Amino acid sequence: MYNKEMQITKNFKLKEFTNSETAKKLGIDNHAQLTQQAFVNLKAVAENVLQPIRDAMQIPICISSGFRCPQLNRAVHGAAKSQHCKGEAVDIYIKPTAKTNLLQSLAVARTTLWEVFDLIYRSCDFDQLIWETRPNGSKWIHVSYVTYRKNRKMVLQCKDGKSYQSLSLFLNNF
Q1: What is the mean pLDDT of the chain?
Q2: Full-model pTM
Q3: What is the DSSP letter of 50?
Q4: What is the rounded distance in angstroms from the CA atom of residue 171 to the CA atom of residue 19?
Q5: All domains of the chain, ordered by start, with CATH?
């Protein structure tokens, strides 16, 4: 088993990719089920997408969902073939933390999640990039990265957790 405190990249620790409030509530040890391949995949997402965005924007990137063991994936009603189960996907948002200094707080306040989405779209290799929103106002970015084939660069939007629409045409004209 991998140490939760292990530094994956300069700004990301392994525990950020395996922590889950749902898993805690249900008594699921998500971290214990992390496979070697899922670990390798999480590291690839961190090195090729998250850390470059963190370096470019100089703001904290928060992970709400990373690796999901099968039991956790079912509990959150994830897709049966979710890339989260292979460690290939993360859901992210931005939010100042208690450790954020004043300059970082100002940078975060001026940065929108859409700007993070746009920077990933324009500067990173990725498999899927999904702008996720829900009627209650919550929003996040789902981004995945694969190493065993060419990344598809799929750009989608999902407003209800079920149906997905392409955003590529919109972004190309933006």
Answers
A1: 90
A2: 0.88
A3: I
A4: 32
A5: 8-172 (3.30.1380.10)
